[in-house]
## 1
Amino acid sequence: MFDVEKIRQDFPILEQQIRGKPLVYLDNAASSQKPNAVIDAICNNYRNDYANIHRGVHTLSERSTADYEGARTKVKDFLNAASTKEIIFVRGATEAINLVASSYGRTNIKAGDEILITAMEHHSNIVPWQILCEQTGATLKVVPINQQGEMIYARFEQMLNSKTRLVAVAHMSNALGSINPVKDIIDAAHALNIPVLLDGAQAAPHMAVDVQALDCDFYVLSGHKLYGPSGIGVLYGKQALLEAMPPYQGGGDMIRKVTFDSSEYNVLPYKFEAGTPSIADTIGLGAALDYVSAIGMDTIAAYENELLTYVTEQAHQINGLRIIGEAENKGAILSFVLENVHPHDIGTMLDTVGIAIRAGHHCAMPVMDFYGVPATARASFALYNTREEIDVLMEAIDELIKVFG
Ligand SMILES: Cc1ncc(COP(=O)(O)O)c(C=O)c1O
């Protein structure tokens, strides 16, 4: 049984009042709050076990190394990867995509090649490819979306061709909530031997992900959206691809032997982890994965889907509210605009009654251009949100419309 009140007790930050009202935290697509289990895991490392990892011969280093590598096993299990060699720790989804663009991209992509993305991508899944195109002479192709905010699959199929060298798409859009048909995308691309990168920054916190069942070539996620710490994320890559890729950064830990003439690189996954990593945060991410796994990703997805259905029904009843993004397959995100009220004013006004949402372009400016809006207000939901919080949000929006309208 999913007991949201019990879950809320695991998140100490949610207990507070903001401007005299109970905090209603609906900015989860930007970053989610942390349960005690994560906070405790980080504190425990710093209080009891902290030391630099891997080369230590003393007890603290051994303990931190065991917990750091333990987190890698937890990520492997969470994504159902075949091996811990396929799990690279990075700073977040952004760094993971940049790693692939730099290392895989510069080795495999050349002038005349095409990289295919969609029109709903986060800037993190646009700009690294633009940089790669500038450096190589390749071309970035963009699969359009329809008014509901769904990628037009027929256009995707038409745009895949013998020049396409990589497909990089969001598993779930942060600006619209749309969930892309990633299995079909991967199967279609693989039929032409084209690898696929999935940007899972939004999907991984909200649904079960099985990289082997999907057969994706790369999958990226950010810890801080998954109830874990900021500054830690994951690049999953198929072992054969990672083996063939050159290092992304040079430095300590990613080498086996260094002379002034040349260096011999370390084995996977260390080849891609240069320098001292974010040790305690990695251990914190492991605790976050334990936390959500104990609840069950399918249970979380089902609960959040109920929230989405409820908030969508309520939003449809508000005159002057336009939902931006109504994909049939959608995660728990409500992006919207109001007649006569700028999204930034919506955000500021809602804060006065304790409600935290995000207003802006959500790092997806092309999506804003497509809908002809400068920005949207976005309420994004997590496993600890409730129907009562949606009622509070809707009442506040009603009030706002009365004042401004
Ligand atoms: C879909 C998507 N991709 C990539 C990112 C970038 O994640 P990060 O800033 O954690 O690197 C985000 C963050 O909002 C996102 O929503």
## 2
Amino acid sequence: MAFPVTRLRRLRRTAELRNMVAETRLTPDAFVYPMFVCPGEGVRKEVRSMPGVFNLSVDEAVKEAREVHSLGVASLILFGLPDRKDEVATGAWAQDGIVQQATRAIKREIPGLVLMGDVCLCEYMSHGHCGIVKASHAPQSLGAAARDAITAVAVRDGDEREKAIEKLAGIASRASEASYEIVNDASLELLARTSVSLAKAGIDIIAPSDMMDGRVGAIRRALDEAGYTNTPILSYAAKFASGFYGPFREAADSAPQFGDRRSYQMDGANIREAMREIEQDIEQGADMIMVKPAMPYLDVIAAARERFDLPLAAYQVSGEYAMIEAAARNGWIERERVMMESLISIRRAGASVILTYYAKEAARLL
Ligand SMILES: [Zn+2]
């Protein structure tokens, strides 16, 4: 039936009608609240680029966890800021690691709250990469690069010079790319060790975010061998190398000291590859899968929902949060309205679990 018999506006007339026919709903039990735990006592330090988000010492983290639980939010995901970093990420897998301490304290006080443990090495590595870094020998192309550099510097005028400088920047990044490597297979052992240590401390769900090949299988085997056959894995299966992670790196103090993460995180241009990543993780034993970031990758969430039957999570990342906060502070958008709209869009795309810095506030509104 077409217009005028059909009038779609009939069901939009009042808030009650709209609510009754809503196709997608948000509930606090679908939210996961990310928390950054740091050493010390009574520490509550706001992250500059993420107003309302804090680095919390263990005692403060327990208070925050209690509040999160009282709002009906299902789960917390913990990230750690260790007091020391090294080349083997000791802080990630040590039994007295900062996340392990926080886990034990929160579990003691609020046993009903589901705790997720982010498994990665970058926060604990002195170089800030997600795996073990090996310096590789300078390749021959460096000689050619040096010649290019000399040519570029010799150019003196205007436009030509601009171009030459741009070219130099390219040469520099190529050179540093060539001089180190994130070693995949050796990193798996540390990731597996970290996962077992977190499970031992009481983490309910292990969530690897490093994007090394084969990590889910390695972690599953290690958990099973250590007796944690019932601990599920939520894999950050399709994690894209993204500019939207900027504020997180400040929050978790995890910016790489050189280079970037494009050799292990996914290229934003690729959705078919994202499906392959997810498929691989499922084959290796992932119990839940995740797409990250959320809003710039809603099509990936929708495609994953269509294709796979596992519970699907999406991470509304720091940059998504920071953009909304910044625009709202300027009075350019209505904060609460945009917050809820961003969350419903992720839900509508097909994510059943949403990791979001808005978990507490959205739960209050629901
Ligand atoms: Zn990492």
## 3
Amino acid sequence: MKYRILGKTGEKVSVLGFGCMRLPTFNGEDGQIDIEQSVEMVRHAIDNGVNYLDTAFFYHSGNSEKFVAKVIKDGYREKAFIATKLPLGNVNCEEDVEKLFNEQLDKLETDYVDFYLLHAVNNDSWENRVLKFNIIPKIEKLKAQGKIRHFGFSFHDDLEVFKKVIDSYDGFEFCQIQLNYIDTDYQAGTEGLEYAASKGLGVIIMEPLLGGKLASPAQSVCDALDKSKTPVEWAFDFLWNKKEISMLLSGMGSMQMLTDNLGYADKAEVGMLTENETEMFINAKKAFDKLTLIPCTGCEYCMPCPEGVLIPKVFSAYNTITSGGRRFVKEIFPDIEENTLLCKKCGKCEKACPQHIGIIDMLRQVRNKF
Ligand code: SF4
Ligand code: SF4
């Protein structure tokens, strides 16, 4: 495993972090984590040098933190950093910060977290939660008590808001942004990455595979990539090549994915790509952009829908068909039309979507297409 320093935190983190939001689950709508298989996988990652576990209040319907508590027993607490996040949407008064944090400590069965992030900061949550409810001084207090070691934020909004957040408070030590060879100008993007690093923040990357879309992309995208590496390895190397990036998070859902990713991480180097290879990603992005896919990453922040619309599944089916993966939608989602018709347009999902997808209208468009 390769390690890099995470900005102002000064911590040496593995270039590959384990995202605990897409763990193996049992079949069924409740998506219950397959604890035995998942614990084995995450511990295997730690045994092979991964030293950062990323979880959050909401992941796996609130069960991810409890899962991490199981992983870190038997001496594993000392071998890996734990990162979790404050669910800003649940903060409705100043007292909620400590209340939620203590609940998270209880679920994690630990006395402290190594990395604590404001979850999914955007302009609205920054103004109407973080500033309005004095969240930062509350976190500083928890940090002074030794319950939080490092403080940062994860981000989903545009570049202007990203710079505003960084410039508003110099106590942030690191941030987590969405980046991959498609999203170079989306949200914080490459310019945001360079800005954060120039201010001394460590940068962690999420969605390196764009919700899995870059793992087995459409033929036109594959054709643009050199055949000497898999699409996943290319997507990761695009990021590891950059000196401003300390780590990328991968939500690994199987032992095979983990084994592959560990192999890729072993070769990660700053400046590892040639000029030709850097050019190659521009062509792959051009091919991808022509596909006009719905920018859903499958994060499930919009779920559950009170009416039972399976939003990420609908969008995933649309994207699979549109990118030429399968010819018939009935093979992957036979009830897609009926399911989209359940939508009562309450708008709950749109408020939660970090990709700012106009979900209601998009469901209508998907229904029309099929
Ligand atoms: S707008 Fe439609 S899809 Fe979204 S939460 Fe409401 S009912 Fe569900
Ligand atoms: S629609 Fe938005 S919130 Fe829902 S899974 Fe997709 S990206 Fe996530």
## 4
Amino acid sequence: MIRSSVLRLSAAALAGAAAVAVGAEARQTSAPPQTPAIHARASRRLVIKNAMVIYGNAKPPYGPMDILVENGRIADIAAASDASSLRTSADAVIDAAGKYVMPGIVNAHMHWHEERQRGIPQPIQYERNLYLAAGVTTAREVGGDFDKSKRWQAESDAHTIVAPRILVYPFVSKGRTGAPAEIRAWIRDIRQRGADGLKIIGMDRDQLEAIMDEAHKLGMRTATHIAVEETTAKDYAELGVNSIEHFYGVGDAALDGIQDFPPEMNYANEIHRFGRAGELYAQTDPERLHKIIDLMVAKHVVWDPTFSIYEASRDLIRAKNLPWFRDYLHPSLEEYFKASTENHGSYFFGWTSNQEAKWRRQYRIWMDAVREFANKGGMVTTGDDAGYIYSMYGFGISRELELQEEAGFHPLEVIEHATWNGARLIGMEDRLGKVREGFVADLLVVNGNPLENLRLLNPYGTDVMLLNGRPASNYSPIGPGDHVQNVHGGGIEWTIKDGIPYHVPTLMREVKDMVAKARATRRPATTAGHQ
Ligand SMILES: [Zn+2]
């Protein structure tokens, strides 16, 4: 019984999927995608019909369902039916037959950039479009231009700009002298000016005690990038930090003593810094690593590993040759990524196989540590930290999901990290992170089933197998006479934020246009430079 109903459902899903086999990229090479009338417009009653639902908390998907969105909220979810009153009363409809609907993604670690390479402006809409196209409906900015980000936050909340919802966590300033009293005064001031939380980087123990005490008094959340310093994850966990970003600090707390740096080590030199960082986890003591993980779990610290931002260190050739660079890489980023002693994260001068091998080993131990942390009850989130190290906005978060799958998580768990865990991290679990009645309508309509292939969430799309013209699992039996094709498909079709649907092929076409325009205006200058 169960088996036959599963077969019936998947047959229905496949029939619907035939129409959506060709994703954003492929369509652009033929005819430019039409922008549907409902793009970027609020409607009174929006219905998403025939959707398979991925709820957000790792329970299995179910459907097909009709979802009613009213005044930006999920008002009703009912079994899909042509006769339902949901459909007849709708003033806008998205047909999700053969598609999956999941909550919008919380990018827990990002930065807004209006310029990367100095002197080459990068329109802020470029980054906004890319994040929405990758399904990011909420962006936690952990360090940026505070006043600008607060303005963009208000504009995003009012829907006067096309952008994800924004949370602003400024870098904690050490003030003029770094005295704890100065730091406390700075925190009180930034709280008054509307900081949603704090980003901590590089602190001594007395400074950290002051920051955490002040943050707790004011009810502010905290995220930290622990550098190599006197404080490690042990100090941060003991003092009650909310989230640890990246990998630093955790590995450092699990060493016998300190990392074995060579005498010529210069921490101000990024080649030294990122090269040696890749040796950290191989030097950890496994028993000590279990212990610090236990402490982080006991203290309810969230781990936001940002696997994708360091990936170039383990595979530079891959990182430099990503297929979406051709049409979507802005010249400001392109220039910034090149080896440079000026630009943060552009440390690839003569990068060696030896360094990559060490980074690959580091990833294996680090990923196992994150998996162990989650198995013991720790909460993992997803962030991309893009705009550095060959990682592009949006594509980075999509890759982060793939790397969390590589770390051993089930795709349902990975999506939970990206949605429900993200909502809990930022304290919005009463309204975000689940496809639930009463929750904010932050929803993604995905071309296909992301549980089969997380790469379907990539704004560029991915390879899809067609069997006799219809998308099919590549494990499907192929008989004589069957017609098998590999086509470009997938992608998110709609990113819905606060009930407003954004058409992803349209967002990506706009990005492509911005890049083409920026390249065209740069070309004469480049030619002159070569003469
Ligand atoms: Zn960052």
